[in-house]
């Protein structure tokens, strides 16, 4: 029982740390007003990296051994652990999926940033891919995500026009 208590303390510390990471990831992002769509991709890539590292740690043999010992001891801390493990898995899957969909838009980010204000040739294709993302992505098809993406695309178009006017 002494070993079980020590292992439960370790799992409770891990649980607290994982909750903190999840809570921070769910907070509203603060970004500059003129940030472009590449920032959206970078955000999700960073989040994917964080959650994949966390998943790797959760799936490590050391953690699995501790969890299996606590399962044998019928520890009550495992209920919290399993819930958090599921939440981390969902967050990792969301980030991975969003990166995959946003990479489809990535080829338009460069031309959008470097084009002249007559960037109309890129916009229909860009909007088609945004529509595909909205209708097919299981995670990115929320109004918050789409609004954020459209805002960043618009910011990039405005920045391109400003640069064109100031240089031209």
TrEMBL record:
<dbReference type="InterPro" id="IPR026983">
    <property type="entry name" value="DHC"/>
</dbReference>
<dbReference type="InterPro" id="IPR013594">
    <property type="entry name" value="Dynein_heavy_tail"/>
</dbReference>
<dbReference type="GO" id="GO:0005858">
    <property type="term" value="C:axonemal dynein complex"/>
</dbReference>
<dbReference type="Pfam" id="PF08385">
    <property type="entry name" value="DHC_N1"/>
</dbReference>
<dbReference type="GO" id="GO:0045505">
    <property type="term" value="F:dynein intermediate chain binding"/>
</dbReference>
<dbReference type="GO" id="GO:0007018">
    <property type="term" value="P:microtubule-based movement"/>
</dbReference>
<dbReference type="GO" id="GO:0051959">
    <property type="term" value="F:dynein light intermediate chain binding"/>
</dbReference>
<protein>
    <submittedName>
        <fullName>DYH5 protein</fullName>
    </submittedName>
</protein>
<feature type="domain" description="Dynein heavy chain tail">
    <location>
        <begin position="5"/>
        <end position="166"/>
    </location>
</feature>
